[in-house]
Amino acid sequence: MAEIIWTEPALQELDAIAEYIALDNPAAASNLVKAIFDKIERLASFPKSGRIPPELPDSVYREIVVPPCRIFYREDEQRVFVLFVMREERQLRAFMLEHS
Q1: Which residue segment(s) compose the domain that 56 sits in?
Q2: What sections of the protein cross the membrane (predicted)?
Q3: Buried b vs exposed e over 54-80: b needs ≥16 C-beta within 10 Å?
Protein backbone atom coordinates (compact mmCIF):
# COMPACT_ATOMS: atom_id res chain seq x y z
CA MET A 1 0.00 0.00 0.00
CA ALA A 2 1.42 3.37 -1.05
CA GLU A 3 1.74 6.35 1.25
CA ILE A 4 -0.15 9.46 0.08
CA ILE A 5 1.87 12.68 0.30
CA TRP A 6 0.15 16.00 -0.45
CA THR A 7 2.42 18.86 -1.48
CA GLU A 8 1.80 22.30 -0.04
CA PRO A 9 0.95 23.86 -3.46
CA ALA A 10 -1.68 21.17 -4.08
CA LEU A 11 -3.29 21.77 -0.69
CA GLN A 12 -3.21 25.53 -1.14
CA GLU A 13 -4.85 25.39 -4.56
CA LEU A 14 -7.53 22.96 -3.35
CA ASP A 15 -8.20 25.30 -0.43
CA ALA A 16 -8.50 28.29 -2.78
CA ILE A 17 -10.92 26.44 -5.07
CA ALA A 18 -13.02 25.29 -2.10
CA GLU A 19 -13.10 28.80 -0.62
CA TYR A 20 -14.32 30.21 -3.92
CA ILE A 21 -17.09 27.61 -4.21
CA ALA A 22 -18.02 28.13 -0.54
CA LEU A 23 -18.84 31.78 -1.22
CA ASP A 24 -22.02 30.58 -2.96
CA ASN A 25 -22.44 27.06 -1.63
CA PRO A 26 -20.55 25.91 1.49
CA ALA A 27 -22.04 22.41 1.32
CA ALA A 28 -20.85 21.94 -2.28
CA ALA A 29 -17.35 23.05 -1.30
CA SER A 30 -17.27 20.60 1.58
CA ASN A 31 -18.59 17.78 -0.63
CA LEU A 32 -15.97 18.52 -3.28
CA VAL A 33 -13.08 18.38 -0.80
CA LYS A 34 -14.42 15.11 0.66
CA ALA A 35 -14.82 13.58 -2.83
CA ILE A 36 -11.26 14.56 -3.76
CA PHE A 37 -9.76 13.14 -0.57
CA ASP A 38 -11.79 9.91 -1.04
CA LYS A 39 -10.51 9.49 -4.62
CA ILE A 40 -6.92 10.26 -3.64
CA GLU A 41 -7.05 7.78 -0.74
CA ARG A 42 -7.91 5.01 -3.24
CA LEU A 43 -4.56 5.68 -4.90
CA ALA A 44 -2.89 4.11 -1.84
CA SER A 45 -4.14 0.74 -3.13
CA PHE A 46 -4.37 1.52 -6.85
CA PRO A 47 -1.70 4.13 -7.67
CA LYS A 48 -1.90 3.58 -11.43
CA SER A 49 -5.67 4.07 -11.55
CA GLY A 50 -5.45 7.71 -12.67
CA ARG A 51 -5.16 8.51 -16.33
CA ILE A 52 -2.15 9.99 -18.08
CA PRO A 53 -3.03 13.63 -18.84
CA PRO A 54 -3.78 14.07 -22.55
CA GLU A 55 -1.47 17.12 -22.67
CA LEU A 56 1.43 15.08 -21.24
CA PRO A 57 1.33 11.74 -23.08
CA ASP A 58 4.93 10.75 -22.34
CA SER A 59 5.15 11.96 -18.75
CA VAL A 60 5.40 10.26 -15.37
CA TYR A 61 2.38 12.26 -14.19
CA ARG A 62 -1.15 10.96 -13.80
CA GLU A 63 -4.39 12.67 -12.96
CA ILE A 64 -7.67 12.08 -11.23
CA VAL A 65 -10.65 14.16 -12.33
CA VAL A 66 -13.25 15.21 -9.77
CA PRO A 67 -15.31 17.92 -11.49
CA PRO A 68 -14.56 20.79 -11.48
CA CYS A 69 -10.98 19.78 -10.54
CA ARG A 70 -8.06 17.91 -12.03
CA ILE A 71 -5.64 16.49 -9.45
CA PHE A 72 -2.15 15.68 -10.72
CA TYR A 73 0.16 13.19 -9.07
CA ARG A 74 3.09 10.91 -9.65
CA GLU A 75 3.86 7.64 -7.97
CA ASP A 76 6.78 5.43 -7.19
CA GLU A 77 6.77 1.99 -5.59
CA GLN A 78 5.86 3.18 -2.11
CA ARG A 79 4.45 6.70 -2.40
CA VAL A 80 1.93 8.80 -4.27
CA PHE A 81 2.82 12.51 -4.45
CA VAL A 82 -0.18 14.78 -5.03
CA LEU A 83 1.51 17.63 -6.89
CA PHE A 84 -1.16 20.12 -7.83
CA VAL A 85 -4.85 20.75 -8.24
CA MET A 86 -6.47 22.94 -10.86
CA ARG A 87 -9.90 23.74 -12.20
CA GLU A 88 -10.77 21.66 -15.27
CA GLU A 89 -11.39 24.61 -17.57
CA ARG A 90 -7.91 26.07 -17.13
CA GLN A 91 -5.25 25.36 -19.72
CA LEU A 92 -2.61 23.05 -18.23
CA ARG A 93 0.33 24.74 -19.99
CA ALA A 94 -0.69 28.23 -18.82
CA PHE A 95 -1.31 26.92 -15.32
CA MET A 96 2.12 25.28 -15.11
CA LEU A 97 3.89 28.38 -16.43
CA GLU A 98 2.05 30.53 -13.88
CA HIS A 99 3.18 28.30 -11.00
CA SER A 100 6.79 27.67 -12.00
Answers
A1: 3-98
A2: none
A3: eeeeeeebbbbebeebbbbbebeeeeb
Closest CA to 74 of 92, 41, 52, 42: 52
pTM: 0.86
pLDDT for 20-43, tens place per residue?
A: 999 999 999 999 999 999 999 999
Domain count, the chain: 1
CA 31/CA 36 separation, integer angstroms: 9
